[in-house]
Amino acid sequence: MPHLDPADALELDDELDEVERLIRDTVSAFVRDRVTDHVADWFESGTFPTSELAPELGKLGLLGMHLEGYGCAGADATAYGVACRELEAADSGLRSFVSVQGSLVMFPIHRYGSEEQKLQWLPKLASGEAIGCFGLTEPDQGSDPGGMRTVAKRDGEDWILNGTKTWITNGSVADVAVVWARTEEGIRGFLVPRDTPGFTTSEIHRKLSLRASVTAELHLEDVRLPASAVLPGVTGLRGPLSCLSEARFGILCGVVGAARTCYLSALEYSTTREQFGRPIGGFQFTQGKLARMQVDLAHSQLLALRLSRLKDNGKLRPEQVSLGKLANVRAALDIARSARTVLGANGITTEYPVLRHANNLETVLTYEGTEEIHTLVVGESVTGLAAYR
User: Comparing C-alpha atoms, which of 15, 36, 11 is closest to residue 86?
Assistant: First the structure.
């Protein structure tokens, strides 16, 4: 009886074209050569080697890879999703870095920026010469960004920004921040270079999740910006929400990699760890766990591929992205937790990747829209009734 491929039980990678497979193999090799042996140490020390990895990721064409022109690779959505999967197979922090750079910083500049802004920032961001961050979440406003307190007021031809943003990936290492602020016209996006007077950052420490990732607060105190700093192409929440939809697509694909790593780790352990004179993978309880994890992984892989193809065809809707993030992050977290039980006490060490992934996924579950918010998005989509308030 032929065996299922535990990494791809439904043989979905056969549906990838030649370019998508090349990207898969290239990213997988990069992760294996540059990340896998080191990421546990980064996690334990709470560090991420941004200055080393950013240029390498840029050289591979992974930064803003789904955008056209300005030094971007112009890859299709499926290829981007596959890249996210292979990056997050190592660590969610690595995928988060690429996702923030491409979907939350480069995407709004590419979609809503002026030609001058695009020429100034996109080539440097694509190469990894410059790092960006995305300032939306505030200490008192997370799931309801419409209530943000950061304000931008006109002063002649200039703008004056005041406010605080928090839980900002790459915040303390970014060369430019895309900051969203309330104005008399509605919510607008501003490009804030790091050396702007009044703009400071403070790194967030003592995290128990996403430790191999830089997280910070942004502080804006009477930050004066010229009119040319405003993203001219959008006003209102549509701007930041469209960016989040791009990032969520990367998440729903990326977490499949984390789930796959956890599952394969548990599977390998179950065939070598012996109790009562035989491998624990031969006992019914353990096989039941492995079978359920395999089913959840296959479901997630199938969902990610389907949504990727919809995005390539220009048919993917935000509600479908919410469905994908809701389903796949939860499945990945369930797989990580179940895999940890297969590994027993060994599963809590950084020698194995499982609990590190589980800790990271606790953050992924709530960032870019909490599980509850995405549940309500799907609920409204099928009933036509909003239940947010």
Answer: 36
